[in-house]
Automatic annotation (TrEMBL):
The gene is socC_2. Signal peptide: none annotated. Residues 6-124 form the Gfo/Idh/MocA-like oxidoreductase N-terminal domain. The keyword Oxidoreductase applies. The keyword Oxidoreductase applies. This is Deoxyfructose oxidoreductase. SUPFAM superfamilies: Glyceraldehyde-3-phosphate dehydrogenase-like, C-terminal domain, NAD(P)-binding Rossmann-fold domains. PANTHER family: OXIDOREDUCTASES, TRANS-1,2-DIHYDROBENZENE-1,2-DIOL DEHYDROGENASE. Keywords: Oxidoreductase.
Length: 332
């Protein structure tokens, strides 16, 4: 293995081209060595655009490249399981886009395949590698805001006009809960350090978009009478706030999951009526995500977030979708 890990990318998805590939290229311990597409010309054009040395006309060809250490999978959700397992069987470590799978059982199969092959499997929730989340967790754990009474969060955007988008294919794992609702769910589990006990979700399923949930609002219950209230949408104005309410204070994160510009990662702390802005460094969370995975691989140490975390997140997502479809509270 070289000083830097060599990454191969399966597919030319927008998230890969806009964010993840540049993030890996800017990281300390990684380089993007190859990209593959089922359309070879598309792979070659993307490689040229992003200064990637090698382009393949099939995913299989990239997996057969012995120089590739890590595979990044930004494919549509319904393909995550197949290509994660195939990458694992090829001996490649894997960063797979969120949500890891379509169901909890699929995620468990993927984790089992990675463990059997002796490779690392990481879910691509880049936001949690930003150092501000360690700081937020420390503030909560220190008791500065008192006992946590609740969390509110949202992740919404409007892309409804693009009817051909993969997000609007029900059989491909489309819908707002899969695409962006997974973030507030993941963040609440991270910050509270425990798993939910029940969910109740209401959703707007759009016949214009293959009956996927274009907006959903939910209540995620945790023990101790604490809950996450959240909403997510692909047909609403853009926003991604997070608020943690305590008995003595409030933490407000205006842009909780994306930090595109200097200052956008800052958050606010109010304790007993005194509000202050907490400034955090402007960093590339995608780069930090890649380096965390690389350090684990190179040092043979556990991942910061194990596949079990992704399995547990999928369990909650499964329950949210069931609740929304059946208009009922689902116990976990």
């Amino acid at each position: 293995m070289s000083q830097k890990l060599k990454w191969g990318v399966l597919g030319c998805a927008g998230i890969a081209k806009r964010s993840v590939i540049p993030g890996v290229q800017q990281s300390e311990l990684n380089e993007v060595a190859a990209i593959a597409s089922r359309n070879e010309e598309k792979a070659k054009q993307t490689a040229a655009d992003l200064n990637i040395p090698v382009a393949y006309g099939s995913y299989e060809a990239l997996l057969e490249d012995p120089s590739i250490d890590v595979v990044y999978i930004p494919l549509p959700n319904h393909l995550h399981k197949e290509w994660t397992i195939r990458a694992a069987e090829a001996g490649k470590h894997i960063l797979c886009e969120k949500p890891l799978a379509l169901t909890e059982s699929e995620a468990a199969e993927m984790a089992e395949a990675a463990a059997k092959a002796g490779v690392y499997l990481s879910e691509a929730f880049m936001y949690r590698y930003h150092p501000r989340y360690d700081e937020i967790k420390q503030i909560i754990d220190s008791g500065q805001i008192g006992e946590v009474r609740g969390i509110r969060s949202a992740f919404t955007f409007n892309n409804a006009g693009d009817k051909t988008n993969v997000r609007y294919r029900k059989d491909w794992g489309g819908g707002s809960i899969y695409d962006v609702g997974c973030y507030p769910i993941n963040a609440a589990r991270l910050l509270l350090g425990k798993e939910p006990i029940a969910v109740t979700v209401n959703a707007f399923f759009s016949p214009e978009h293959d009956d996927v949930d274009m907006m959903a609002s939910g209540l995620i219950e945790f023990d101790g009478s604490v809950a996450l209230t959240f909403d997510c949408a692909m047909w609403a104005a853009s926003r991604n706030p997070l608020e943690i309410l305590g008995t003595d204070g409030i933490i407000e994160v205006p842009s909780a999951y994306i930090t595109p510009t200097p200052g956008s990662g800052n958050f606010f702390l109010t304790v007993r009526g005194e509000r202050s802005e907490i400034e955090v460094p402007h960093v590339n969370a995608y780069s930090m995500q890649a380096d965390q995975l690389a350090r684990a691989i190179m040092n043979k140490t556990p991942l910061q977030f194990q596949p079990d975390d992704a399995i547990n997140n999928m369990k909650v997502i499964d329950a949210c979708l069931l609740s929304a479809r059946e208009h009922t509270r689902v116990a976990l």
